[in-house]
Each structure stands twice: as structure tokens, then as C-alpha cells.
Write a structure and sequence with these properties.
The complex is a heterodimer of chains A (107) and B (118). Chain A has 107 residues and is mainly β. In chain A, 0% of the residues lie in helices and 50% in strands. Chain A starts with a strand and ends with a strand. With 118 residues, chain B is mainly beta. Helices cover 0% and strands 51% of the residues of chain B. In chain B, strands 2, 4, 5, 6, 9, 10 and 11 form a seven-stranded mixed sheet that branches. The chains are: A mainly beta (107), B mainly beta (118). Chain A binds chain B through residues 32, 34, 36, 38, 42-46, 49, 55, 87, 89, 91-92, 94-101, and chain B through 35, 44-47, 50, 59, 61-62, 95, 99, 102-111.
């Protein structure tokens, strides 16, 4: 099983600031990494797939990067609606696994 | 647009059974793998099972293997999850999601809550 570790657990920032969320895999997952955003009471929403490709309708302030074992989701200028929990997920090998999540909260 | 609607959740005693359903629309259901993913209260996401587009291939997480069975009816655009020998730790919101082999979950349902408690 490929364990994904996300850091930090909680990130406190202000609107307009830049956020960088990390996801690290114990073994290489090539670029089979996705990022999801989840707001309270809602289902997760796919933001990024293939490590760096934005899903349809995702604003360009969301950028994914990395390959192998180290990945980053960057939000260039935080909007109020971006404060949520973010999960990374690997889909290169079974079982499919998620990171434990990073909570992005308003400072 | 893609729509996934889960149903069948509820309160069940430990050792009991439950059958979840997911009604799909807005896409060619029989062309896509489908998965079940769960989220315990206040916790993260856990993939638990997927099924191939034809239904011939299935895979399970170790936590549910031998207790849960995934299936689908392509004629009715429906996905199912039969859960037996339920445990307190199976309490979660259960989401169905659309995916493909080596692909992320690109659409999710709103989830259905399963509570296992005596």
C-alpha cells in the first residue's frame, strides 16, 4: 500500500495570500496523483489530476506540480471560497489511497 | 451533466447488513469503472471498492474484503454495495464515484450515511 503524507495538517492564511500544500508518497507514483477539495457537508471535488492537469472548470489559481514521490498543490491568491480541506490521492496502484488531508483555514 | 445519487444508508446494528445503491445519469455508465469511497465522521477519505465497466473485475480494500460486495446493473445505470457483518468502525458517509482504470474520481455523489450502532 502506498501511504501518502500531507503537510501541514492545518494551514492558516489570509485571502490574497499564496498557499502551498505538500503530499509525499513512500514509493514513486509517477504522476498518478490527484488533488481534491472538500467543503463542510459536501462531497469532494476533483481539482487536479495527473499531478498537474486542472480538471474542467477549476480556476487557474490552482496549480499542481511534482512527480515521483513529492507533490505540491499551490493556490496563488486565496479567495474566500478556497478555505476547505484538501486531499491528495494516488491512483497508480491498488489499493487506491488518500492522504490524511490539509485543512486550509482563514487566519 | 453527470449525476450520481446514493441511497440505502441508515442505522444498523453491529453484525447486520445493508445494501447501498447509486443511480447514475448524464454519462455513458457502461463505459466507466465505478467506485465506493467512505468517510468516517470527522475523518479522511478511504477508497473501499471498485468495479470494472462490464462488472467482471472487482477490487476491495482489505478493511472490507470478504464482507462487502460491489456490483452493477448497466441496463439500469445502477451501482450497488452489499455490506454484511457490519462493524461500528464501518460508520461513515459512503460516496459512489465515477472513475476509470488508472484515473482519478472525477464525479462524486452526495453520499449516504451508514451508522452502525447498538
Amino acid at each position: 500500500e502506498i501511504v501518502l503524507t500531507q503537510s501541514p495538517g492545518t494551514l492558516s492564511l489570509s485571502p490574497g495570500e499564496r498557499a502551498a500544500l505538500s503530499c509525499r508518497a513512500v514509493h514513486s507514483v509517477d504522476n498518478y496523483i490527484a488533488w481534491y477539495q472538500q467543503k463542510p457537508g459536501r462531497a469532494p471535488r476533483l481539482l487536479i489530476h495527473s499531478a498537474s492537469s486542472r480538471a474542467a472548470g477549476v480556476p487557474d489559481r490552482f496549480t499542481g506540480s511534482g512527480s515521483g514521490t513529492d507533490f505540491t498543490l499551490t493556490i496563488s491568491r486565496l479567495e474566500p471560497e478556497d478555505f476547505a480541506v484538501y486531499y491528495c490521492q494516488q491512483y497508480g496502484s491498488s489499493p487506491l489511497t488518500f492522504g490524511q488531508g490539509t485543512r486550509l483555514e482563514i487566519k | 451533466q453527470v449525476q450520481l445519487v446514493e441511497s440505502g444508508g441508515g442505522l444498523v446494528k453491529p453484525g447486520g447488513s445493508l445494501r447501498l445503491s447509486c443511480a447514475a445519469s448524464g454519462f455513458s455508465f457502461n463505459d466507466h469503472y465505478m467506485s465506493w469511497i467512505r468517510q468516517a465522521p470527522g475523518k479522511g477519505l478511504e477508497w473501499i471498492s471498485y468495479i470494472s465497466n462490464s462488472g467482471t473485475f472487482t477490487k476491495y480494500a482489505d478493511s472490507v474484503k470478504g464482507r462487502f460486495t460491489i456490483s452493477r446493473e448497466n441496463a439500469n445505470n445502477s451501482l450497488f454495495l452489499v455490506m454484511n457483518s457490519l462493524r461500528v468502525e464501518d460508520t461513515a458517509i459512503y460516496y459512489c464515484a465515477k472513475n476509470a482504470i488508472a484515473a482519478p474520481f472525477d464525479s462524486w455523489g452526495q453520499g449516504t450515511l451508514v451508522t452502525v450502532s447498538s
